[in-house]
Amino acid sequence: MPDRPGDHWDRKVANGLAFLRRRLSGDYEVDEFGFDSELTDAVFHPLLRLLYRDWFRTEVSGVEHVPLDGPALVVGNHSGTVALDALILSAALHDKHPGHRYLRLLGADLVFRMPVVSEIARKTGGTVACNPDAERLLGGGDLVGVFPEGFKGIGKLYADRYKLQRFGRGGFVSAALRTGTPIVPVAIVGGEEIYPMLADIKPLARLLKLPYFPVTPTFPWLGPLGMVPLPSKWLIEFCPPIPTAHLTDSADDPLVVFNLADQVRETIQQTLHTLLERRPDPFGP
Fold it and tell me: What is the pTM of this model?
């Protein structure tokens, strides 16, 4: 029997009320890391969907390289002054992947020391970027997302856009090796233009105990309006996975770890160059 006019909205209202009842009664589940899949699906992903689909006009390719099931370590470039790229990547991957998989993001300690931000990070599946947590998630069959550039990536000047920073000590590689997990490099173009950082006021950053204090074309000049991201065109490409199962005995070998980290970094950098050639206009359609 076809829906009558108004049936669609009746269902939405009923579902919304049922959702509120579950939240108020505590009738929902979170995992050992605090991940709340229901809240993520109902609140956070719809908001991020508006950003990646309508504001950034994001195109995603290579999602077939992300396993249908089982663990994988997704390693991306980091940029944008504010780390929106991690959130956009997780929402876009969930929507575009045939299995609608969740990406469990690893974040810096600072994220989990900030009120509200820490709670949101936990609820959406994030945890501290440390090898024990990464290995537990991978051992449980999850997709784990990591951005080895850290604050060096998101806090770099616009003049250095799309130039990958140092990958640190390669801890993410060790976690993949110990669990025999494939590494899926991912290149993200678009994040560098949302808040182009023209300068970093280091004395103010030290005073506020921040890794940097950005000056952009709109911030701090426009106050809160300066936090609205510019509508850059985004391209995300997942690269073929790099297997590690044959290297599980080399997790503590610095040379193997360095070479594998360098391979991942070079793959992402070359893919960025290719994507930039496909997107000559940062704010095009």
Answer: 0.90
